[in-house]
Design a protein that fits this description.
single chain, 710 residues, alpha/beta, eight-stranded mixed β-barrel, six-stranded antiparallel β-sheet, 24 helices
């Protein structure tokens, strides 16, 4: 083992040395290569810049020479005694034509000559290439500006470039005057020569000043050198453009093979590193792209997720396009599919629904999956909200087929319009508010957002605060309704009922109990009612106490311990307590309900199934949970006065309970006929306004005292 360790250590040492040497060599090679490359680039750039500066000076010199040549020609002809004499004679036009206009046809120094009279506007003579022409049309109004500037006697002509019909020309203008003036001169005529930048002129300038490829452009070209040409106002009217000779680049091209060889040698050392680096970069890039896609998309359906949806809505808002309309779609019955067929089938259903929603309407621009069975559609177009909702609901009119299974699900829809300055999160919140209302209204509903939903939510939130305060302050009181023996008519027990009285009036339990369940206060309310009811029931030791329990309470793993704790604290006999639950608990969380019921039954607490006959409890469930009593729903009792078969249905229901050996309580009894029928059918306990309305603890005590005295 020691030899192996030494060998391994030696190999690792050699490997480290090789790696270190290679790294050092690569670093030195890269540094030297960088220095050499910098030197070569610097020399190349400097040589190019020096030659470009020379060429630019040459171009300016060419323009200067062009200007000087035409300027000198103009001065030679304008300061001329014969010309001065002829300009004021009747034959001025003929003389000008013979000496200047005719010559312009093939004269190298100028292409045209114009003589303007002393009034600085009348044309005495105007010839271009030996033919008459109109200066104002050819040069524009700027021509006369130059004439006015040159009309006064001066030894130097006014020279400017000017834009013409065919390109750019150089104009030189000077007053026609004698060589020497003895007296003050009158207003003088003006002589103008012009020379165009023709290809021939540019070729001549190119040859004279070593500017190969010199030509005229209206705009500068980045790949060429240039110098601007300006008119009399200083505005740029064109550019002399020529390619750079780039001598440094030429030399660089000559040494390129040697540089390429050096680079190739270096590349042999670096290619392995580059290949590995490129492979790793490609892998990381793919991971980054996958992570970016996953960040904005749902992995199961391939649709956008919440983050992707909000980003898309922000893009629509910033682009200024038509405001989108958002639809939230929540599947009805999806949990039952998962429970019945498993999550694999549920996933297949999610994919089918995703594809169907995405293709449901041509104006749907995006779809998203926000959670388990909640989807979102973004709609931009002219279709109405009602049409879109009908289209979406129509997708669920027919069942889905998955592996030979026929699966039916419905949908609830909440819609909101992104009008005005509605932010993306606010739009999503509004659609969610509408969806919440749609689900509360029942399956297959579609609701569009209305500000009243927010107002209602505000009122509910306010009521939640009041409810929390009422529970803490004990403002919610317990009243008691008698439970009477069907055979003797004596009060055998009391059912505790919650009442909330406020300064503005009483609030119905049908309002505040569901509210407590939704906002998470039902456990606190339940414990408060249990404690308050027991505190009063301690004054009636011969009576049993029934207290209603919410399914949410029963599904709380800590519920049983809380009930036992209250009983022990108040020293109340558990055998006197009956907890009434509805059938809903048998379906929402049967396992936890069974554990809580079993734990409480072991200490002596009884359980009654409330509202029996209006739900879906099976005989098997009734046996499994071992209820100690059933309470017939008041709707079956009311049916005794409404139809001929009401009594038959009621008797059948009571017979079922009797067969299961479960005693029966009938509630909602309002007249003696109902009581007689129920007594005859086998009910052993009666409850209703006929036996007594819900009363305060004081009234119950008074009633019990009266019965005892009688």
């Amino acid at each position: 083992m020691h030899v192996v360790d030494l060998a391994g250590r030696h190999v690792r040492t050699q490997t480290s040395s090789i790696i270190a040497t290679t790294v050092c060599f690569l670093v030195v090679a890269l540094i030297l290569t960088g220095l050499m490359a910098h030197v070569v680039v610097k020399m190349t750039r400097s040589a190019n810049e020096i030659d470009d500066a020379r060429a630019t000076r040459a171009a300016r010199a060419a323009i200067g020479a062009f200007v000087a040549r035409l300027s000198g020609t103009t001065t030679d002809n304008a300061i001329w005694d014969d010309a001065y004499s002829a300009a004021s004679s009747p034959t001025a036009a003929d003389w000008a034509y013979e000496n200047w206009g005719k010559t312009s046809e093939d004269y190298a120094l100028y292409d045209g000559a114009v003589v303007i009279g002393p009034d600085r506007s009348s044309i005495v003579s105007a010839y271009a290439k030996g033919k008459p022409f109109q200066p104002s049309a050819f040069f524009g109004e700027g021509f006369y500006g130059q004439i006015r500037a040159a009309a006064d006697p001066a030894r130097a002509p006014v020279v400017n470039f000017i834009k013409t019909e065919s390109g750019i020309a150089l104009l030189a203008s000077q007053a026609i005057q004698p060589y020497e003036a003895a007296t003050e001169l009158p207003k003088l005529s003006t002589l103008t020569f012009y020379k165009e930048f023709t290809p021939g002129v540019l070729d001549a300038l190119s040859n004279e000043h070593e500017l190969e490829g010199l030509h005229l452009e209206t705009k500068p070209r980045p790949e060429f050198l240039n110098t601007p040409i300006t008119d009399m106002q200083g505005a740029v009217i064109g550019y002399l453009v020529w390619p750079s000779k780039a001598p440094g680049s030429t030399v660089f091209q000559q040494v390129t093979p040697y540089i390429a060889a050096a680079v190739a040698i270096l590349a042999l050392f670096l290619i392995g590193v580059l290949m590995v680096g490129a492979s790793e970069a490609r892998r990381l890039r793919q991971l980054a792209q996958a992570a970016l896609f996953e960040a904005g998309h749902d992995s199961l359906s391939g649709l956008l997720n919440r983050h992707g949806l909000l980003s898309l809505l922000e893009e629509f808002k910033s682009s200024g396009s038509s405001p989108p309309r958002l639809y939230l779609v929540d599947l009805d019955g999806f949990k039952a599919v998962n429970d019945a067929w498993g999550h694999a089938v549920g996933d297949d259903l999610i994919r089918l629904v995703s594809n169907a929603l995405m293709a449901c309407h041509p104006e749907v621009v995006a779809a998203a999956r926000l959670g388990g069975d909640e989807f979102a559609l973004v709609h931009i177009g002219s279709a109405t909200c009602e049409d879109m909702e009908k289209t979406i609901l129509a997708l669920f009119a027919e069942p889905f087929k998955i592996d030979g299974r026929t699966i039916e699900v419905g949908a609830s829809i909440g819609a909101a319009a992104g009008d005005g300055d509605v932010k993306s999160l606010e739009l999503l919140r509004r659609a969610d508010m509408a969806l919440y209302r749609a689900k509360a209204n029942g399956r297959g509903q579609a609701i569009e957002y209305d500000p009243e939903l927010d107002e209602e939510r505000r009122r509910v939130a306010e009521l939640e605060g009041l409810l929390k305060g009422a529970i803490g302050s004990g403002a919610i009181e317990a009243v008691f309704q008698p439970l009477v023996s069907a055979t003797t008519g004596a009060v055998t027990g009391l059912e505790a009922l919650a009442r909330w009285r406020t300064a503005t009036g009483n609030i119905s339990p049908e309002i505040f109990i569901p509210l407590a369940e939704r906002c998470g206060l039902i456990d606190a309310l339940g414990v408060h009612m249990l404690r308050t009811s027991i505190e009063h029931a301690r004054n009636w030791p011969d009576l049993a106490l029934s207290v209603n329990v919410s399914p949410i309470q029963l599904c709380n793993p800590e519920f049983a311990a809380e009930v036992i704790s209250v009983l022990q604290e108040l020293d109340f006999d558990p055998k006197r307590l009956t907890l009434e639950i509805t059938e809903g608990v048998l379906m929402t969380n049967p396992d936890q309900a069974r554990r809580s019921i079993g734990q409480l039954k072991r200490v002596g607490i009884k359980f009654a199934l409330d509202d029996f006959g209006c739900g879906y409890a099976s005989i098997g469930a009734l046996r499994q949970f071992g209820f100690d009593r059933m309470k017939i729903d008041r709707s079956l009792v009311s049916a005794l006065d409404e139809g001929a078969n009401g009594a038959d249905v009621l008797r059948a229901t009571i017979s079922l309970a009797t067969a299961l050996q479960i005693p029966v309580t009938a509630e909602g009894i309002e007249n003696s006929r109902q009581a007689a029928i129920l007594r005859e059918a086998g009910c052993d306990q009666l409850q209703g306004y006929l036996m007594g309305r819900p009363m305060s603890a004081r009234d119950i005590s008074s009633k019990l005292e009266e019965e005892a005295a009688a």
